[in-house]
Specification:
Helix content: over 70%
Oligomer: single chain
Number of helices: 5
Strand content: under 5%
Largest sheet: none
Length: about 110
């Protein structure tokens, strides 16, 4: 059975395949925001959250090299790929994640 985040990843890939980049970006924002809330609350393991975002980043890059995502989406994903460093000075900035997500979801 797929996890919620694997299902979200599949939905993002489906949307990109259909050419619906804007809606895919919104899904990315929701996914990274939800993962950040889970990491902060302790309900999502930071390494797992990082892996979900990293795999999504790789899939988008490999399957859709011609698609240019919004800068806020790219920054969200970069922050998400630092979940594994949660609790250190190199970890994600949850304030930035919320700010980027707000821009994408506006």
């Amino acid at each position: 059975m797929k996890s919620r985040y694997e299902s979200m990843t599949e939905e993002i890939i489906r949307l990109l395949t259909e050419g619906n980049v804007r809606e895919a970006e919104r899904y990315v924002a929701r996914m990274v925001l939800e993962l950040s809330e889970g990491v902060a609350s302790g309900t999502v393991i930071p390494l797992a959250a990082d892996a979900y975002v990293s795999r999504l980043w790789i899939r988008i890059g490999e399957q859709f090299p011609h698609v240019k995502l919004d800068e806020n989406v790219e920054q969200l994903m970069i922050e998400g790929m630092s979940f594994h460093d949660y609790g250190t000075k190199f970890g994600p900035d949850f304030g930035l994640i919320r700010a980027y997500a707000k821009q994408v979801l506006a």
